[in-house]
Amino acid sequence: MEETDLITSLAPAITEQLNSKDTPYVRKTYQRLIKLVDIDDEEAIKMLALCLADESNRMFIDKRSFDELRYQQLLNALPELPEG
Q1: pTM of the shown model
Q2: Which residues have a Cβ under 8 Å from the Cβ of 51 and sit 6 or more positions away?
């Protein structure tokens, strides 16, 4: 699966997180990107999805559970994108 396909496939998960009371930090990051950094909606969703993809990839590589703290750290670093 190519990176663009992966990001597109994660967009619904990001939309769910934006609307969930369990992940307010995702909505906060989205709003920060849209308002303070002046990034459009599509690009903001893509950036959030890249962070989710990075953490999901680390789960697979390290054979571990989802690390919510690491995911939040990746989101907090935006608009700087995860390396790797």
Answers
A1: 0.89
A2: 71, 74, 75, 78, 82
